[in-house]
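Researcher: Here's a chain I'd like modeled. Treat it as a single chain, no partners, no ligands.
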Amino acid sequence: MHIKHKVIVLAVLPLIAAVAAIAILVAMQARDLERQQEVVLKDAMLVAKRAELQHYVQLAQTSIDHLYSSGRDDEATKGEARRILSEMNYGDDGYFFAYDLTGLNIVHPRQSELVGRNLWDMHDSEGLPVIQRLIVAAASGDGFLQYKWRKPSTGRETDKLGYVVKLDRWGWVLGTGIYLDDVETIRSMLRDRMAARIAATVLGFTVVGIVAALIVFAGGMALNISEHQLADRRLKALAQRIVTSHEEERTRVARDLHDGLSQLLVSVKFHLELAKERALAGRDDVAEHIAKGLDGLGVAIGEIRSISHNLRPSLLDNLGLSAALQQLLDEFRVRTGIIVDADIGKVDLLADEAGATTLYRIAQEALTNIERHAGAHHVRLALVAERGTVRLVIADDGRGFDTARIDHPRSGGIGLRNMRERIEHHGGELAVSSVPGHTELSASLPCPNAKKGSLS
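Model: Modeled as a single isolated chain. Structure tokens:
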């Protein structure tokens, strides 16, 4: 996988993971909130139903209070009270019931078959004695009891909350109850709504995560395409620079060969031919023309050495970088008349031929730029080796330039970009700073085998 694709993946995956983690956390918090709301709602509904049951029982007591308060305990009075209670119904399943303290059913309008039956030993589906517990609840004064009883409207046994009071003088337990299946219905509706909201929230987070991931991916792809296009342009420019540099070098070599070496060799050939003719003619000035030819050959050899040195300085191979830089500075000083200060450490880079060539070419290119563009009067060059790094520093007091244009694709000069590409190819770094009156170029190259010697 390409490094840029890896960067995009490493950017998208944490985003998706973060969105997923947030969605899971929100879902967990929502479910916890749902459970808390369910408990709170159930408790609130039970409190409300307890108050409602108390009101109903108070209403029933009020309806028979004129009979109970009359002080009469005869069967006719009690029968009238039973009639009144049997007719007091509310809702589909709301009614009043009454038992005596032995468990005998006295009033039950919705299950008339129970009236007159002793239900003391009656148990619900959980095996609990319902009537005994109701009588105990009434006697304790609390009056509330949750139990199971058959619901008249459905015929199924359902949870029921009852409230009973004791009529001491008659020995009755009077009460009513509310079936709790409606509470479960409301709780179920609440759970369904909360589940729908959680699903909507998780879906929202999922959509946001997908959209964000697509945006990051699209941005990464756009950046990738842009970087590829820029890299292609730079690669084409570099290829063109290489071709141009090769053509310029060939042109220079061809010009040097034609204008210098070729003419010198023609002159040598002329003197040798003239010496041959005069020797055949028996004249005495043969040695003079042979000497002139030999002088021309000496100059031609010097020209060959100069051309060879420009292509590849022999000192760089034989004596190392320090000596080659010193010769380069001497030639620069003679050629330009610019004052040069050299602080060249005797650095051994013979084990790293490519690194030595890179630093030499950077120095050569920098001095060429100074000569052509800087208008400088003073140049300083330093070469030091420290902590496995060789550092080359070249500074001048010229007019300076805008360093921001070094990497601009449309900038005119290519020398500095060539330097940067050379040094970065070998894992080094190039730093350039420039203001009017002071320009400094620093090239650092990692060379673990470099050895620092005495300064020359």
